[in-house]
């Protein structure tokens, strides 16, 4: 009994000692940040994403003056300019890039905790952010999976016309649960899965005065072209690859983020454009367009499913993206074999 009492006393002392150590650590951390307004980090992230004080203010619902004041305090704290005027945009310094990369995962986890992401809660709605075109072959997959695991869950689709800044904002500030995009949005705090490859085809109107069926590089070089408006490095790289294959720089007359607008312009003009094979097959009987062929294939455009790693702490969300990824990958493998 005496030994037991001594053991309990010793264990109790050790527990009190550990509790005291934890309390001291928390106290030290509090002392370190008590004079630092953590709201400044939200302002910093908004400016980093939008590269603009005015756009950051709009996104946060505050005045540009408040953003300027917040940046001023951050510059004093870090003893660095953080953002430097580059034309109409604000370019981050190397210190600002380091802050963003160092805080990204911790900030994401903080937002997740504040929004009460638990291990077993089932949300009443899922927000999916993607372009109108990508929604045509992604939203139905999400709907089918939700029919199976949560038939009462509402699906909300938001769109941004290929704006990388808006998609980054949707991820960081939890405005969307899942993003589908041609840009991978690579970050250590996110998961980016390749879920589709869109094969491009060149189109013109059926009654084009000079082109029909198979054409040559020289014929294509004489025509004006339509480009997809996008900030994606992947799409821009594909544009350059196509120019390399064609062996000339295409003359651009019209730019649009919408494939629907692009085919509408094609059928009412002599301009040429690239759209996805999938979209062409859906629209070829509804619009006055035709596919024109060259003697080589063009590079496919990858599409990604992106979401925050912290969201995987929720078992329901983890199941949703796993089942959706399985469906997408099956389709991807099937298309690659055909």
TrEMBL record:
- What InterPro entries does UniProt report for this protein, alphabetically? LysR-type_TF, LysR_HTH_N, LysR_subst-bd, WH-like_DNA-bd_sf, WH_DNA-bd_sf
Q: Which domain of life is it from?
A: Bacteria
Q: Which Pfam families match?
A: HTH_1, LysR_substrate
- Domain (HTH lysR-type): residue spans on this chain: 36-93
Which SUPFAM superfamilies does the UniProt record give? Answer: Periplasmic binding protein-like II (SSF53850), Winged helix' DNA-binding domain (SSF46785)
Keywords, sorted A to Z: DNA-binding, Transcription, Transcription regulation
Q: What GO molecular function annotations does the UniProt record carry, in alphabetical order?
A: DNA binding; DNA-binding transcription factor activity
**Alphabetical list of Gene3D superfamilies matching this protein:** Periplasmic binding protein-like II (3.40.190.10), Winged helix-like DNA-binding domain superfamily/Winged helix DNA-binding domain (1.10.10.10)
Keyword Secreted among record annotations: no
The UniProt entry's sequence similarity note says: Belongs to the LysR transcriptional regulatory family.
What is the name of this protein? Transcriptional regulator
Species in which this protein is naturally found = Rahnella aquatilis (strain ATCC 33071 / DSM 4594 / JCM 1683 / NBRC 105701 / NCIMB 13365 / CIP 78.65)
